Amino acid sequence: MATDVVVIGSGVVGASIALELARRGWRVTVVDKAGGAGHGSTGASSAVVRFNFSTLASVSAAWEAHFAWRSWAEHLGSDVGDLARFERCGLAMLDVPAAPRSMYLPLFKEVGVPFEEWSSADLGERIPGIDVGRYWPPKRIDDDRFWTAAEATLGAVYTPDAGFVSDPALAAQNLAVAAKAYGAEFRFRATVHRVKRANGRVTAVMCADGSRIPCGVVVNAAGPWSSRINKLAGVGADFTVACRPLRQEVAHVAAPAGYRTGDGVGISIADMDLGTYLRGEVGGGLLVGGTEPECDPLQWVDDPDAVTMHPTMPVFQAQVTRAARRLPELEIPNRARGVVGVYDVADDWTPIYDRTELGGFYVAMGTSGNQFKNAPVVGKFLTTIIEQTENGVDHDERPARFVGEHTGLEIDLSAFSRKRPYNAENSGTVLG
C-alpha cells in the first residue's frame, strides 16, 4: 500500500501534479473526498485562459501554459478518450484605473505575448453592440449612480491568443487518465483524516476509513480545503501569505445576437470598470462572473462543505445587469441559472507553490480562481520544486527555476513562495 507521493486533491491542479510526477517515475497515489477528478472547484471554473497578471512570473506561466492547452493531446502524452478543447476567441481587457495598461503591457512585451491596443472606436467596431462608456468605479445596481449616463469612453487591450477550455472537469479527468497511464493510482471518496510525521518528516497519510498510506512526500492540492489539510499536518506557522475559502457564482445566460460570431463564440471581455467578466460558449451561451468590486461584499466561508451550491437571485441579477449595461442587447432572465464554486483565495490573489517547514510536505494552494489556466505548468512547477528539495537543495535558500519547454522562458519559482513579500501591485481581484 506504500507509495512515494500522496497528492491530496484531484482537481485540475492535483491531477496535473500527479501526471508530471508519474512521468518522472514517482509512484503516485491521489486521494480525494469527491467521487471523481474535477468534481470540486475545477468543475465550477469558467476556465478562461488569459495572460493579464500583475507579475512577470504569472504572465510567463500563463503564456507557457496556453501552448499546452493548444496542443492538449500532445501534452497528455497518451490516449485518454474524449478531450477537453481549447477555444481561441481572444480577450479584451477594458481600461480601468485598478489595472492600467502600464501594469501589464511591459510584461507582455518582455514575455512575448501578442496584443493590440484599442481605442474606444476600435472596441465598438470589434465587439458589435458593446457600450464603450466608462462607468468607474463599479456600483451596486440598487445605487442610483449605477444608472447614470457615461460621460467618458474607454478602450481596451486585446490579446488574440486568449480563450477558454470547453469543459474544465473533463480537462481534470483527461489529466487523471493520463496520470494513470503512467502508473498513478486514484482513490476517490477518501477523506484525509491525519498526516503522520516522525523526525520532522511526513511518513503517512491516514484516511477517515482507517486506511493508511505510507509515503515520503505529500502534496496538498486540496483547493478550498487546503488550509484544513495544512492544520492536519501542523504546517503554516512560517507562511507570510494566508488563504481563505471564498464562495463565488457564475451566471449562465443566452448571449445577445450581436455578440456572437459565426461559431457562436464572441470575444471574452474583462470588465473591471463595471465589475464583471464575460466569456462566450459554443452554441450561443454567455458566462458572466464577478471581479470582486469593492461595492460587493465578498462571501468568505469557514467551512467549504457548508456552502449552498445553488445560484442566488441577488448575485445573478447584479452580475447579469452589469453585463447588460455593457452589452445592452443582453436579456436578463427572471430566474437564476449558473454554477457556484468555492475558491481558495490567497491574500494577494497569487498562488503558493512551495515546500513547507515539514519535510516532504508541499503545497499547491491559494489558486484564487485564476490558476485553472496554469494547471499544465503547475504540475511541472511542483515536480521541479520537489525533486530539487528531495535531492537536498533548500528551495528557500536556492529557489528552483523552471524553464518552459514551449517558450524557453525561465521562471523563478520563489515568486510563488509561502514566505514571499505581499504583492502590493496586485489588482485585489481574481485578475491577480
TrEMBL record:
Keywords: Oxidoreductase. This is FAD-binding oxidoreductase. SUPFAM superfamilies: FAD/NAD(P)-binding domain. The lineage of its organism: Bacteria, Bacillati, Actinomycetota, Actinomycetes, Pseudonocardiales. InterPro entries: FAD-dep_OxRdtase, FAD/NAD-bd_sf. The keyword Repeat does not apply. Pfam families: DAO. It comes from Prauserella endophytica. Residues 4-383 form the FAD dependent oxidoreductase domain. PANTHER family: FAD-DEPENDENT OXIDOREDUCTASE DOMAIN-CONTAINING PROTEIN 1, SARCOSINE DEHYDROGENASE-RELATED.
